[in-house]
Task: structure prediction
Amino acid sequence: MVRRRAGRWVLAGLAAAGAAAAIAASTASGGQSGTVLAPPPDGRIYHAAFPDFGGPEDRVRASRIRAFERDAGREIAWAYFSNNWDRGIAFPRASVDRILATGRTPFIRIMPRSGFGEGGPDERYTMQSFVDGRWDGAIREWCADAAAVGTPLLVDFGIEVNGEWFPWNGRWNGGGRTDGYGDPALADGPERFRDAYRRVVTLCRSEGAQNLTWFFHVDVGSYPEAGWNSRFANYYPGDSYIDWIGISDYGPLVPGDGWRSFRSRLDRVYSELDALAAPGDKPIAVLEYGARESRSQPARKARWIKAAIDAVLSGRYPRIAAMSYWHERWRNGDGSVSNLRIDSSRRARRAYARAVDATELSSDLEFEPR
Result:
């Protein structure tokens, strides 16, 4: 077992320096060696966050991590950030190194998009282009650079895939048609994403990147609501490719959004998440959750945060082994502001800090051999 604690790698029976060397050697050897993120022991839950790395979600700074942890009153196990491919496919080594220097584990959100527009296809990074191998050379280089880091990393590809706001959603890659790609019994859009993700994982393994833990990430709400899109299994790459299952579950994000219960929305999809993999085989992570500050209802956000964390800590969702808060403030196109940060008000900060001050939470990641 390998544990990430206070900036050191600890492997049973080895000193810290030897542990790091063992991980690097294991990763470089290829095959079935390497490490994978394990659930925390004793039924605990990892505490993590996206600590506001800016609008494109990739301006990684140690100061942002320290500021979030100061407000939370607790360290984070991983720092979540985006690897945008708008300027080409490149491994974010500088960002990874900055996070590792703080003693936290990098969690890389691979965002295969050529721009930041939402609600339409991407003419460059279609899922078919991945299936066809158009990007194989660049992806191999990305994977080799990931392997060269020599320490465990966390990765997801094409987040919230059942949401049409992102170009990797099935709507923009064949939709519910069944006559344009692959198995005629399956919807083309989800099937293309599934096969694209499989290809990325296969390429990384071929380059010896056995230090990557792969997450499959959906949203609690499916848009469009058609059956071909709302069934998570249609997109799932399969147990041999995925290590963890992740979900986003937000409260209101922009003015006009209603206060949607974290628990009631998760209740509606939890059984489907649970059924994606063999019983007990894949841990689940709440990869994104949060709610905007409401000046007209100043206590609502604090209550929402507390209720969300309490719901998971209660044991209501036994497969959930991690929670990662989305800590960001942005300006919308109409000039309004969406402030999800935990320090958006004293009430919100206090509610978050009190909720995460729980023995059920852990800031120390545990890794095990594959």
Remarks:
- The two ends are 11 Å apart (CA to CA).
- Residues 43-363 form a domain with the TIM Barrel fold (CATH 3.20.20.80).
- The longest strand covers residues 212-219.
- The chain has ten helices and 15 strands.
